[in-house]
Amino acid sequence: MTATETLVAAGNQAHSHGPGSPVPLQARSERPTSYDVADFPVPNGREEEWRFTPVKTLKALFADEAGTETPKVDAHGPDGVVIETVAADAVKVGTPQDRPAAVAWTYAAEALAVRIPAEAELTEPVHVNVASLGARGFTHLIVDAARHSRATVVIDHTGAGELSSNVEIVVGDGAELRLVSIQQGDHESIHLAQHDALVGRDAKLNHVAVTLGGKVVRVGTNVRYAGPGGDAELLGVYFAESGQHHEHRLFVDHEATHCKSNVLYKGALAGDDARSVWIGDVLIRAAAEGTDTFELNRNLVLTDGARADSVPNLEIETGEIEGAGHASATGRFDDEQLFYLQARGIPEDEARRLVVSGFFNDIIGRIGVPEVVERLHEVIEQKLARAAELSAAGKAVVGR
């Protein structure tokens, strides 16, 4: 019995997302994947995987043609790290799951590879900078942490163009990798990305997605396990302002025994048309006995006119697991927290900033790179100041 058949047997039926747009029930694992662009029709927004996304703004990245620029990509790291340019197909962790990923795979002829040697324990992070220069372009990155290595890799995305990217992540047996992907493009930039990770036996992946800039950002993160004992922690922070669309989609595919996954994404929204989307899919296959998984998404709506969509999904094909659960919450400020702070003489605006900063701290604090943490706190503080002005003025502002 397929995952879809299992769900239907449990009472789930086909459903619709609006008049004339019936969407048949389809398990996450059964959606098509391909390296061939032609296998993915141009989205119209009625498809299940595109129904939340402003597809009209993404036409350039749907086109089956070469880019009009080559984004600037550079990297540096501690001694021993190998940074080199290789063929785009040198490492294949995952297959493109939508049209933009297939287009990016087709037209990014080369990839920048960051290789962490076996047994290496890096005391300083590897930094990868990706700058989109103002037009349409594609990038391909490979991060390969060999067995029993320990490393942190920070990928910074900046610029004003339209970027589609693929990131291949390999965590070797017994290795520990922290990968931080920061999306902080200019307020008119567009960034679509697919991250595919393969976690080895007794390995640990800590993946952190931070989205603060960009007009439209959509990041899909997919995790598989190469052997038992793998552990994946997927964390995310996003703050959407007026005119910004921040979308994160995750798929954790448990097919090996005794593996763990923990997903925690937090977002804030302020301003008219501020929009966030979070889709969390976890599949526990029949062979994945001993799985322990949980996913949580929390959203804090700071002003009227903002909207957060949150959809956690869990497919379980075996009852022999340690635990599985998911939760989602969207709301406004906790009045009790504000009252507590104001009762101690803290002005309302400052109290609100403290509440939001605390909301994000448990994730940002896990990044482990002080200069990055400091920079992110500064950007969030700037966004909070604009949100306070927005609340006071009662009108929308365009922020970054």
Automatic annotation (TrEMBL):
Pfam families: SUFBD_core
InterPro entries named in the record: Fe-S_cluster_assembly_SufBD, SUF_FeS_clus_asmbl_SufBD_core, SUF_FeS_clus_asmbl_SufBD_sf, SUF_FeS_clus_asmbl_SufD
Source organism superkingdom: Bacteria
Residue intervals of the SUF system FeS cluster assembly SufBD core domain: 137-359
SUPFAM superfamilies: Stabilizer of iron transporter SufD
GO biological process, one term: iron-sulfur cluster assembly
Region called Disordered, residue ranges: 1-42
Family per similarity comment: Belongs to the iron-sulfur cluster assembly SufBD family.
Protein name according to UniProt: Iron-regulated ABC transporter permease protein SufD
Organism field: Kribbella amoyensis
